[in-house]
Structures are given as C-alpha cells and as structure tokens.
Amino acid sequence: MELFSEIYGKYYKLIASLLTKLPLTRQEINGYVTKEGFAESNLYLLPKLLDKNGWPLLTLDKDKYTSKIASKVVLPVTILEKRWLKAICLDIRCAIFFTQEERTALLAKLADVEPLYQQADFKYFAQCLDGDPFADNTYIANFRTILQALREKRVVYIKFVSGRHHSNGGNYVPLKLEYSTKDNKFRIYCAKIVHSSVKGCYIINMARVTAAQAREKYAKPLPSIASYIEALRCKQPIVVKVSKERNALERFMIEFSPYEKRAEMDEQTGICTVKLYYQTMDETEILIKLLSFGPVIEIVGPASFVKAVKNRIKVQKELLF
Amino acid sequence: MAGYQELIKNFAKLRDCMRDFFVYGFKTRDDFKFMSGRTYDNERRHIENFLGKYVRWEYSKTGKRVFLSFNTLRFTQNPFYQAYLAKSFTGNDIVLHFYLLDMFSTGFCGGADAITDEIANRYDQCFDAQTVRAKLLEYARLGILLRIRVGRSYQYRLQDTTLKTLFADIKNRDDALSFFTEVAPLGIIGHYLQQGNNLVNKSFMFKHHFIAATLDDEIVLTILQAMHEHRYLQFVNFSERVGTEKTFVGMPVKILVSLQNGRRYVAVKHGNKLACFRLDYIKKAKVGEKVSGWEHGKAWTDHVLKQAWGIAHAWRSKKEKISFVLHIDEQQELYVLERLQRERRTGEISKLADNIFCYSATVSDVGELLPWIRTFIGHIKAFNCSNLEVQKRWEQDLQNMFALYGGEC
To answer: Is there a contact between B340 and B355 (Cβ–Cβ < 8 Å)?
Structure first.
C-alpha cells in the first residue's frame, strides 16, 4: 500500500477537474493551471497537456481544446482510504461527530477492510489527564449544537462555568473551534452578541459549557478570526540564546516548532539566537516551557519577560534558602 | 544528469530538507553537508514551489538562510501535505488512468485484452496489452477496480464506493474529516479524501500542532504493517551523534508519541532488550520475516512501557524514585495545583499541610522528569530522588539558573 502515490496527486486532480471545464482556449487552460497547480506547474504540466507530443487527453478544435474523456472521472475511495476511515470511526472522539447509528452504518459499509491502525498501536506521552469528556452525552449535544451554529453562522446561547468557577451565560456566534492534542480539549473562539451587535471576541472551553441553545442566524458581518489571532500576537518576540549543551538546540527547535520564529547561529560560540513570536494569551505557558530547559538556554528579552523570569527565580531562591 | 522536475520520485530527500527548513531555520546552503549543492538547490526549489508563501530568507554573516516560518495556529490545513501531492509518474500512467476510469464509469466490464482493444477503438491509442494488464492489476490492488474471476480469466469493473455513498445522510462528515485529517495518525489520507471531494476545513484550528510529523508518515505506515502482520521491521537509522547510518532488525511493538515536543519513536524489541528509535532519523524501512512468539514479546514490552514516564528511557526496566514538595497557595494559585493534577502522568499527589503538596513517582529514569519539574520553579520547596547523579544535576542546574538570572527582579 503506497502512501505517496500519483493517483492522489495534484496533477491527476487538476486534470480531472479541468476536463469537466472544457472546451477552453490555451490561455484559459494556462489560467486554470496557474490557479490550481503548484507555483511552477505551467512550465511542466502545460506542454504535456497541450503540445502535439504530450499526453493524448485533449483535442484541439479550432482555437479551443476539448476532452477525449466523455464522462466525469470520479476516483472511488481506495482501500487505503477506507482503512483510514475505519480507523477514525473507532476513535473515541468520533462520537462527537457521528451518532451511534451513523457509526454502526459506516462500519458495516467498511466491513471488508481492517482499520489502518488501532489506538493500541500508539502510546501518547504528556497528554493532560483532564481531557474533554468525548463520551459524555451533554458534551456531545453541546458540541454538535455549537458546531452547527458555526457552520450556519447562527447565534447560540451558551451557558458555561468560567475558569474561576463562576457561572456565566450569553449569546455568541462561534467563529472557530480550536483543538489541542496535548490538552485533549476543544476551545470555542466566538463573538459575543449583545443587542444584535458584536461586543468582542471570547474563548470558552468546550468542556465548561453546561448548555447550548441554537438561535437565529446572524446576518451582520462577523470579526475575522485571522485578525483576532493577529491582534493577540505579541508586540515583541521573546529572545532566547540556545546552547548545544545536552542537545538543547535540537530539543528547543523541535519543541517550539509550532511557533513562528527566527533563528541565527553564531558559529564561533555555537550559540543560536532565537526570536520567538507567540500569542499574548500563551505567555505563561511559554514562560514555563522555557524554564523547563533550565540553564542550557538564556532568556535575554524583552525586558518585561526577563523580569517575569527573574521574579520566578527570586521566589524559588527564597523558598529554598 | 536529468534536470529539475516539478514532481518528485522519492520523498526521502525532500523530507530531510523540509524538516530542516522548518524546524531549524538557521542553516545555510553550506550546512547541508549530507547533500550536494545541486541537490540542495533542487530541493529548495521544490519547497519554494510547494510552500511558496511560507518560505522566508535572510542574509547573515555565514550566507543566505532559507527557512519556513509560520504560526501553526493560523492553519486550517497542514501545509506539508502539499509535498505528498507531487509524486511523479509516466505518460502511460496518467493517460491510462483517465482512459480506464472513463471507460469503466460508463459501466464497461471486461478482461485485459478486451480493455486494450476498447482503448484503441475509443481513443485511437495503442497500448501494449502487458502495460494495460499491469495497470489493471495495480488499480485492483488499490481498490479502484474490482477483479472478478470468470472461468479461467479475470474481468475488471469499477469499484463504486465513493465518499458520498459511504456517508449517505451523515451530516457532520466534512467536519469530521477536517478534524481527523489534522489530528489522527496518517492524516495525509484524510487530506487525499478532502482533495478528491473538494472539501476544506472551515471549522477548526489546531494548537500544539507538530505539523512536521507528517513527513514521517511513510515510515509509520510500514511500521503499522509490520505490527499488524506480526513481522520484523528492517530499517536504516541515522545516528545524529555519530553521523552514520546503520541497519537494524527488530520486532516493532508500538509507536510512541511525545505531545510535549512532537517527537515520535518506534519501540522495537530486539532479543531481551527494548529500544526506541526516532522516526525522523529512520531513513528507510521495510517489513521483514514473521516473528515467532509475537504475543509473548508484546506482553512483555507493554508491561515495560506501562511504567514509563517519558519516551527516551521507556525501555529501561530498572525503577527509580522521585519526589518534590511544592508550595501552592490554595486560594490564589489553584490553577497550579490543577496543572499538577492534569500533568502528573503516573505520579501521585498528596497534601502535606495547608498550601503544601508532595508529588512522588516511581519511574524508569528520574532524569526525564527534570524539565517538567522545572516548570514549577517558583513553587519548589524540596526535591529528592534515588539517583544521586540526577539529584546533583538538579541542584547544579538550579544554581546555574540563579547565577544566570540573578534571582533579582
């Protein structure tokens, strides 16, 4: 079973879709390949597609190309894909999307294949023990209501318990659901609606939602999630000097790979200076992650962040001596 | 020597280069010592071609640094999946693909010879019967075609399962696919399904998302095959420390994933020992001979792994004890106690007095806990472990941190 196969590739997909759009001129095909292909596909795909000695899939009729393929080409679901689908059907998190009846029906249709993997094939380390209750009926119902509201741009009344254990409630339009495998939790990025207007963006933990009721569709424009994320981006990056001691450089780079960063190596000292960009709401998480590296890294900026680190170290010193 | 081509035959070189551009980002052309300058240029061009908008470059004293930089929270889809869409093929491959699917989708059914003739009739193209037969067999193996025995020969017809027929009346299908494509093992397969059905993720974004892991998915697939068929895994491992490649053979028992740093390993039993190999260091892997006594070996390794706190030393059977005492203000810092609870893994927490808590664990290597314990700096009142070397390292590290940050604000 091949994972890296041309049948799933960009060219096959692009051509299958192009064939349904013919007849087109050379220029129109060029435009389509530019839009749907890789950056250089015009250079490599067009000659094969359009030239006389290329692939015999198109016919030139006056100035337009027509297809030699009469029907709409649909690739069936392959065995590899079926096996993967069966594996995700057996994942506990699948319950939040599909009802038991839907899962049973799907598994019956996939009865002729073995799951590509089983949960027992993997062992996950460092996953939080208080992950979302994916098998809980109230959680599932709330999740589905919120997911549907997100798709339909609908207001949903959400009742939830805050991080400080206070009960809250209000009207929100969900913008995105964020999931962390490490935390094993969903969080709802949503716009708060007061008197039919957006009153800021909020983040609510899905597991803290105690009730969710879908209401009317929200017709006005909503804030863009991209601008919300951009607004939460730090003003100044954290600057860290990372040594090669105890393989710290590699460990650091891999651990912080999900973050935007700039790195420059000083070959003479073997010290790498890394500028780390992060979401301001994650500052404490980043701080403790950096502390976990101990003395093999040195946090050198910005001043406010270094001050927070020094403060922790000072408190630690006082606790021990 | 052949020039640059947009599509690629072998994923391995691109895999190494992509990871280096993304994870490290400080390397210049000269730092890629394991490949020639020409190969580097080709791979860099592939990366620019597939991931153009994410490629950055800067000049430093040592030269031009090309790197990939992004905040993974902004993605709705793993950008590295693009590389999997670039497999090269021959002219015959693509032409036969469209001819066959076109013919079969009109309900055509026949043997290899009849199909070869039909292609000549319909499309005015002559193919060698062997070439057509090989393609039919390949597509039957992939599950695209059904191969039915009729008398002494085989007939082929289109397999008619589509995403639509599988998920008839299931309304959360698209969201489920979007979600599992990013979080499930071998999510690239979900991406293939999304691509083939023009689906895009509109609902989710992902935090702590180690997207480069997908570059090892071909290795993962081979490991899973070996595990499910109870066979040995034969693989070439690159040792970063020594800088050489070495071939190993062993019984693969589990894939270990660290959600802290995104590294993935395969746990391999070899004789009476268990070893863990990082997937990004495995260059090639293939399925080997059948393992005798699989169940016995699996039960033993499951037992060893059950007691592991982390991956690096999961294979050790010896046990060490560790404990530390924390000062946590129960009124003001309840969130610290909650974090201790959810991150404790196999350890136990006990309350010694008001605002004083003790964490204790018995693990295979206490040294593995040190990074996590350091995240509680500012709360630690005492630290003890049965490994004197680790005890000493903890104390020395703390002294070095005091020296580094002065302990003053």
So the answer is: no
